[in-house]
Amino acid sequence: MIENVTFHHEGFFWRCWFNGIVEENDSNIWKFWYIYRGFWAVLMLLGVVAVVTASFLIICAAPFASHFLYKAGGGSYIAAGILFSLVVILYVIWVQAVADMESYRNMKMKDCLDFTPSVLYGWSFFLAPAGIFFSLLAGLLFLVVGRHIQIHH
């Protein structure tokens, strides 16, 4: 079955679309769940909720009153780090493996002969691993603090 469809590609601050023809193909990468921005947005939102929850729990646990709140906050920071890691990994998979730049370039060159696409990682992409590292580190430290409070108080 051949049909004319509109492809949508979305980033967090950009959006583009183009028309194309889709043929029946069982190995079509567009059927996979990890290429859709909605799935990434859910993981990102869950990560932000985990960070806000962890911060609230840590603030409520001060000053060294409840080991349970420190442990819950630490676990929430670790969960946020894992969720943000998944977002970065899924983005890299999409850019490197899924985005078929050669066929996209060939299709666009029909309309514009000097079309040259480029894929660049932005500065925020390079800062994401640092944020992930510090989220995981904070989670581990708060788990250790919670354990220390439990043993000594």
UniProtKB/TrEMBL annotation:
Organism in which the protein naturally occurs: Sapajus apella (Brown-capped capuchin)
Similarity remark: Belongs to the TMEM182 family.
Key words of the record: Cell membrane, Glycoprotein, Membrane, Myogenesis, Signal, Transmembrane, Transmembrane helix
InterPro entries tied to this protein: PMP22/EMP/MP20/Claudin, TMEM182
A Gene Ontology biological process term: muscle organ development
Membrane topology: Multi-pass membrane protein
UniProt GO cellular component terms: plasma membrane
Protein's name according to its UniProt entry: Transmembrane protein 182
Compartment(s) where it occurs, according to its Swiss-Prot or TrEMBL record: Cell membrane
